């Protein structure tokens, strides 16, 4: 039998190597099944947690190392979300996409909150669920549109714009939520005045931080990336960019915004960098290694004894997740796109993946009073179900009602970011 306490370093290397190999295998399997790889990653973490109940593998040292890898995976994940966004294009498209985005966020958040309350959760956990359910997943929503050759259409661009706005607003709402949680969980009841003051202070600080990031992106990033392209080769130049992005993420964390917010803003800072920087293969290798550990960490945090209760709550939140986005997106989409495509646009917003679980995971740091084990498990159920089922439904909808992009002259790819 493996003695976890005898050789912690050897055990850690064994587990990291084995988990990395298993993640690669499950990634290919999930691709064949046409489901997101994060489903497999979460199951790896859950399997490791169940195995620990039989063989004590997760010593404090090993658990600490996995927590560190999960934190690095979180930074890599949100950095890439920001890096893949195009703030200028979003601003240009904002008049068309903002109505759908705003109604979608309001409706899905409200439906998620009241569904969580109906499932038996207290006010603060229900608020966490509502904020988490405002987000969607670009990575899950877009592949069916690419496969159908419809991503370059007006409807495809609209899906991309709304999904990006959902992700960015989800992270900003998370920052606001994390700032006011201490005032919402005080022993003397909810102090709405203190919560409002804290929220206003955070928004002011976030505005200042955003201005600083804009100044960096405008005056520092262009000459920096040009110098890197001239003087450094891959992967060194991308490692320097990642190091600078990590400093920005750490600064945001020290200012109280969390690493997730900082990583997103760091990615946005470099989102206008030349393609040689943004699509450097060196970062892809780093991303592919680290990101699975964030989702594996989610599986590790699932408590097996709470899973039974999580299934019933997860079913309620799953219905809320689907209805919130379908109603909140389809209704305004009928006025912004052809009515025949409103439903498929809405269905493309249903998947909840990385951003939703980032919100739950970060709020969970405040303890079980904020994110009870049943809620953590329920949101994981929502993630697994929406990511596994939605892509095939969207694919069938696009096949039944084909959307032809105008002047398509090459392979259908996401717009240049």
Please explain how this structure is put together.
With 417 residues, this protein is mainly alpha-helical. The chain has a single domain (69-400), classed as Na+/H+ antiporter like fold (Up-down Bundle). 77% of the residues lie in helices and 0% in strands. Helix 8 runs antiparallel to helix 9 (236-254) and helix 9 crosses helix 10. The longest helix is centred in the middle third of the chain and has 40 residues, at 192-231. Mean pLDDT is 87; it is low at 1-5. It is found in: Membrane. The chain crosses the membrane at residues 6-26, 33-52, 64-83, 95-116, 168-190, 202-220, 240-270, 282-300, 306-328, 340-360, 375-394. Residues 21-396 form the Cation/H+ exchanger transmembrane domain. GO terms for molecular function: antiporter activity.
